[in-house]
């Protein structure tokens, strides 16, 4: 049985990828410090608690489980936070990955899937964005991932590391079976916030910028279902086992959805119009980000299958409604024991 070590395996994308690997017959080991992940999201193998910046802990889990592949998701991923506190991002995302790579090198582990980002491209010069597009990040989050991509190329040349960097556009949606979903504290992601605004009029959704140079003035993003992302990681892992090398792939749909269009989709699914208010643009946000996935289709055999915006919203809504109901029951039980 092949083994994958999933750093950040208790997080949003990491936990969905754990499920995809397990269902494909892999043994899955999650490694997470639980600072931004959820213990209950680890369902498809053991959880080892630890921090990627702790080289001793990483070497120990590598030695104990001898993974064929490391899938690396452990990172901070809030653009606004990265602008306000870049040290946090370079310390965790960049230096943390360096510590992981050194531990892998010491333990003879030679294959890595890297959770990268379209934020490494910065302001697009042409659309849709393909992998040949210049990378020029405009925020510390994008830079923290861009630097890691350069590290992977250098480690490949010098030490024989085989790697795939998967540049996500906007990860969205929840497990169609409802076992896991998207959950952050604090919540800053558009779809969960829009769902909350539909269910709770006292918590309006803030449109971060209404003066972008787009048809309706709101930012346009390429939303790709997290289950599609998970399948891409599985395909990329199989490719690394077969052929090695250093690769980069965009993961998106080629279709842009504006913030206002997203709110309309949430209203359709929820049967309630989200309460909204207008706010200023967020620092470091490009007006439009839309992917070309042609390279992933050609070399990995991947294309999005579950990323229609209405399906994305439906899976997210069903999961968030179940989560809210479960939390209400838990709160009622606690109140009843007081």
H/E topology pattern: EHEEHEHHEHEEHEEEHEEHEHH
Q: So what's the CATH class of the largest domain?
A: Alpha Beta
The overall number of domains is: 2
Main sheet: strands, sense, barrel: 7 strands, parallel
The helix-and-strand class reads: alpha/beta
Within the CATH hierarchy, at the fold level, what is the topology of the largest domain?
Answer: Rossmann fold
Superfamily (CATH H level) name of the largest domain: NAD(P)-binding Rossmann-like Domain
CATH architecture of the largest domain: 3-Layer(aba) Sandwich
Give the terminus-to-terminus CA distance.
49 Å
Count every beta strand, where a strand is a DSSP E run of 2 or more residues: 13
Relative helix content: 40-55%
Write the layout of secondary structure elements.
Layout: E1 3-7, H1 12-23, E2 27-32, E3 47-49, H2 55-65, E4 69-72, H3 79-84, H4 86-107, E5 111-117, H5 140-159, E6 162-168, E7 170-172, H6 190-199, E8 205-208, E9 220-221, E10 223-225, H7 226-243, E11 246-251, E12 257-258, H8 259-270, E13 276-279, H9 294-300, H10 309-336
Parallel strand pairs: 1-2, 1-4, 2-3, 4-5, 5-6, 6-11, 7-10, 8-13
Antiparallel strand pairs: 9-12
Helix pairs in contact: 1-7, 2-4, 4-5, 6-8, 8-10
